[in-house]
User: Fold these one by one.
Assistant:
Number 1:
Amino acid sequence: MMRRFNILIIFICLVSGCGLDDPVNTADETILFQREGIVESFGGDCSGVQIRTSSLNIHNLGQFENLKFDFSAFSDADLSSISIFYISEGETVNLMNLIDRDEINSSRTFSCESPEFNGELFLRLTLKSSVCTGQIFHIEMRDLKVTGLN
């Protein structure tokens, strides 16, 4: 009797897809950038704004319909920001722009329409605080994965 029950459970799982991930989007996803652990991390006091900009070495965004950014970030400075952008005709175009501590302080997934752009994609972290108590503030981004979706 128990054997029939186990066979029935296996059959139901095979037919209904128990425990299987939905494969609809996985075939149309391309990982463009992935770095586990710390991507960028720095600290400073309130005496000045600190900005770090780095290339993600991602080009040819026009071949994708959408972009997805998965990451975890933290800052204790209230005016900090994190942006992912490209430069077109001398102008900065933000694909993602988190403009304060509340937007930064959580793990998240952010999606946007992919631009018709073949240049380079950049990451910028800005550490800035409106409060000056002599405290050292911090900003960090971890586990960044950028995926192109069709």
Note: The chain has one domain: 23-149.
Number 2:
Amino acid sequence: MTCSFYRLIWLLPAAFAVHVIEEYLTGYPAYAGTVSGYPMGLPTFLGSNILFILTMLLLTRWAAATRKPNAVFWMLAWAAGNLFWNFVYHLASVPAFDRHSPGLITGALIYLPLSLAVWQAALAEKVVRPATLIGAIAAGGIFMGLVAAVGIFHLGGLGA
């Protein structure tokens, strides 16, 4: 038996907040500056993460309150980018930069299992069709890729 999808999604913003706390306490802004060559100030780190957590909270509220397919899609896409693909980013960063990536612990212990549980509940309860879920996961991947490319690595001279 699975936890209800609409109850489970409320764990997404909380998980996001716990992850940001781990990143803050383990020095992610300094790490990002070291591996990218672009310093990440604390106001940028905290400001963007607070904005992203609030967005997750608002999208979760919208999806839970309306249960409309559009709301669920965008909530799942945002969650995929900020949780699942963020975990993948931290995991890939370890061999890419030959060092621990601050945020990997909550990514592995919370983000990955929670993402899988939310997706399983969404499919089991027929909240979304498999193709819709795949689209949301892909959209989240594009979002996370853009955040990393522009916000962390400043590709194209952007994000400075």
Note: Residues 5-157 form one domain.
Number 3:
Amino acid sequence: MGCVRNLCLILVCAATLALAAPPPAPSMDLRFDRLASALTLLGDTDRKIVDEAAQLIREGEHAGALARLSTLTHSNPENSSLRILMAYAQLQLGNLTGALDEAKKAHEAPNGNSYRCYFLAKIAFLTGDNITCRRELNHAKNAGDMPEEVRQLQNDVKKAKAKG
């Protein structure tokens, strides 16, 4: 009888953990090469921390990366690349709202390139903000320096619209 009770307890715990586990993060590649220009605005010490955070992201240690990046964004709130890295780490941790907020801050920053428009478009798509997605996708398309990425996101938007 105790064996059956223990088995039931294990099954209930496993089911509870399965329900409590965060959903898998939406798929999105991060283009580190597109972040380089704004990162050159940082000092050597800050760039070293960014390098550590980038390595943690590559290793899937998004919480550690987010902790390091949080400190940097407080001292460099206008750096678009830091904001994109923060948004990406939050996205990978399942925080879509935080990712969208950071992507918007990256977009508003006075530095960076068209990647911040594409990045915001992609995050907006993942969060269901179709108006922002279409607007920023047009900006990225007009820049013309990411044609494959823009085309893929346009196709994703069309597929989602056909399903909805």
Note: The CA atoms of residues 8 and 25 lie 31 Å apart.
